[in-house]
Amino acid sequence: MTEIEVTDPIHPLFGRRFPVRSIGAPERGAINVLVVYRDYMTLRIPLIATNLVPPRSAMPTKLTFAAVTELITLAEQCEALCPSHQVMSGSDCRPIFGSPSATDSRPSSKR
After folding, report:
1. Cα–Cα dist 61/85, whole Å
2. How far apart are CA 21 and CA 2, in angstroms?
3. pTM, whole model, 2 decimals?
């Protein structure tokens, strides 16, 4: 029995190998390969996602142009909310972890 490997990095079964049950007839425009999964199930995997088709030159991505644009806009907004220069002393400085605070209700031997 012949095996195939899922070579498309965005396919959920990427990197897995499966025994081939059948491949559609190429003259009918076969676009799927049927593989054996766990000895009792058959999975249909797009032929283009396997090593039966030469690899594509461009790396596929799930990100669209609109999604990347939205991410950049969001990152620019966050930059305004999170200043790159933070005060290292004074009342604006965050307290050091482990030191007692005014709101600490635990009993202390130093009090």
Report:
1. 35
2. 8
3. 0.49
Q: Which two tokens stand for residue 60?
A: 């596929």
With a CB cutoff of 8 Å and minimum separation 6, the contacts of 100 are 108, 110
Helices (H), 25-95: 65-81
Residue 109 scores a pLDDT above 60: no
Q: 3-class DSSP state for residue 42? A: strand
pLDDT tens-digit map of 11-68 = 999 999 999 999 876 666 668 999 999 999 999 999 989 998 887 666 666 778 888 8
Question: d(Cα 101, Cα 89) in Å, to the nearest integer?
Answer: 16
| 23 burial type by CB count under 10 A (0-12 exposed, 13-18 middle, 19+ buried) | middle
